[in-house]
Amino acid sequence: MPKLWQRNQSWLTPVILLLLPVGLFALMIVIPIVQSIWTSFYDWDGTGEATWIGLANYQELFDDPQFFVSLKNNVIWILMFLLAPVFGLALALFLNQPLKELRFIKAVFFLPLVLAPVIIGVVFTWFYDPTFGILAIVFRFFGFEPIAILSDENFVTFGIIAAALWAQIAFCLVLFLAGLSQLDAELIAAGRIDGASGWSLLRYVVLPQLRSVSFVATIITVIGSLRNFDLISVMTQGGPYGSSTVLAYQMFDATIFSYRAGYGAAIATVLFLIMTVWIAVFLWYTLRKEAKVG
């Protein structure tokens, strides 16, 4: 037995070390995904007997106008959420200075990270209130009539996204501050000697060193925009008239309130495919760009 272990130690050791994490990943991630996809082919209320209906859930889904409203809102979420890494980087560059006065300001910007999304949703609901909210007070101060943002089909999605961005920008800020702390000082010094400063120093010396951080921030931000559910649930419950619903909330509503677990699983499958395709395209683009740079 000891000889067998010595002969195969080079590959047995990593296999044993990976056995538990791979097993947990399969148990918690892969199996639920497969079960969800399989459930999408059934008519099931979540408790009783499931009936096989094939692609009927998907056919109904693509005939449902609410699905396209949710899909449109998801696109809006993605486009606006991509501002989070940009603003996070800008704030990180501003706050990455050895000044004692900035410690308090950093703490203020970090505040959204320690707040639960439910609290953020409640606070922004008060903020948007057209009778006593801060936004209404500002509108009246300048002589304008307050807008009921969360009751207006044209503004409600943007109002919720603004609340979500407050926390997402703080998350990206932390990532970029960590990345800035790992910059190679010698490369920056060499860039300054070569005459680089301001924008040229940022573009050709700093940003290339933050490429991995930017990649993580972008991936997490887009995934967060696609699965955002809690703020919508707290602030509007998908209203008014379903105008602020996204795919994640529509899935929840169909499964929990309409007792249609199969239909909800079909929505979840479509959302999973969207995430998978986007991540695959983004990875392909990033790796190809890395190969060209290398």
TrEMBL record:
<protein>
    <submittedName>
        <fullName>Sugar ABC transporter permease</fullName>
    </submittedName>
</protein>
<keyword id="KW-0472">Membrane</keyword>
<feature type="transmembrane region" description="Helical">
    <location>
        <begin position="265"/>
        <end position="287"/>
    </location>
</feature>
<dbReference type="Pfam" id="PF00528">
    <property type="entry name" value="BPD_transp_1"/>
</dbReference>
<dbReference type="GO" id="GO:0005886">
    <property type="term" value="C:plasma membrane"/>
</dbReference>
<keyword id="KW-0812">Transmembrane</keyword>
<dbReference type="GO" id="GO:0055085">
    <property type="term" value="P:transmembrane transport"/>
</dbReference>
<keyword id="KW-1133">Transmembrane helix</keyword>
<keyword id="KW-1003">Cell membrane</keyword>
<feature type="transmembrane region" description="Helical">
    <location>
        <begin position="201"/>
        <end position="226"/>
    </location>
</feature>
<feature type="domain" description="ABC transmembrane type-1">
    <location>
        <begin position="70"/>
        <end position="284"/>
    </location>
</feature>
<dbReference type="InterPro" id="IPR051393">
    <property type="entry name" value="ABC_transporter_permease"/>
</dbReference>
<feature type="transmembrane region" description="Helical">
    <location>
        <begin position="107"/>
        <end position="128"/>
    </location>
</feature>
<dbReference type="InterPro" id="IPR035906">
    <property type="entry name" value="MetI-like_sf"/>
</dbReference>
<comment type="similarity">
    <text>Belongs to the binding-protein-dependent transport system permease family.</text>
</comment>
<keyword id="KW-0813">Transport</keyword>
<feature type="transmembrane region" description="Helical">
    <location>
        <begin position="75"/>
        <end position="95"/>
    </location>
</feature>
<feature type="transmembrane region" description="Helical">
    <location>
        <begin position="158"/>
        <end position="181"/>
    </location>
</feature>
<dbReference type="InterPro" id="IPR000515">
    <property type="entry name" value="MetI-like"/>
</dbReference>
<feature type="transmembrane region" description="Helical">
    <location>
        <begin position="12"/>
        <end position="34"/>
    </location>
</feature>
